[in-house]
Design a protein that fits this description.
Distance between the termini: 46 Å
Order of helices and strands: EEEHEEHH
Strand order of the largest sheet: 3-2-1-4-5
Number of strands: 5
Helix content: 40-55%
Strand content: 35-45%
Shape: globular
Radius of gyration: 14 Å
Number of helices: 3
Structural class: alpha+beta
């Protein structure tokens, strides 16, 4: 099974996450201190039938990773998710600016 980790920053330095499978919520938590902490917490709650996870930060999917990779490289995966989201947000801001002209 491949799950999705939906991670959001609802206040500066305050993150929440939820884990879904095929659109159904499996579990969630809020008030974590970092994107990386959300990855660890999401991993911790998974059963043995999960094999991989899509990681989405602020609605932008940055990749699909085997669970072992997430456990071994959480800082790199968190950084990649943040950078991917920032890049997409920048493109959307620029596109919005072009549409107003």
């Amino acid at each position: 099974m491949i799950v999705r980790f939906h991670i959001d920053e609802f206040q500066r330095g305050q993150f929440d996450y939820r884990v879904t499978h095929e659109g159904l919520d499996l579990f969630a938590d809020a008030g974590l201190a970092s994107l990386e902490a959300c990855l660890f917490a999401a991993l911790d709650g998974l059963g043995a039938d999960a094999l991989a996870a899509e990681v989405a930060f602020k609605g932008v999917v940055s990749g699909t990773y085997p669970l072992g990779s997430i456990a071994a490289m959480p800082a790199q995966i968190a950084e990649h998710a943040r950078h991917t989201t920032e890049a997409i947000e920048e493109v959307l801001r620029e596109a919005g600016g072009l549409q107003r002209s």
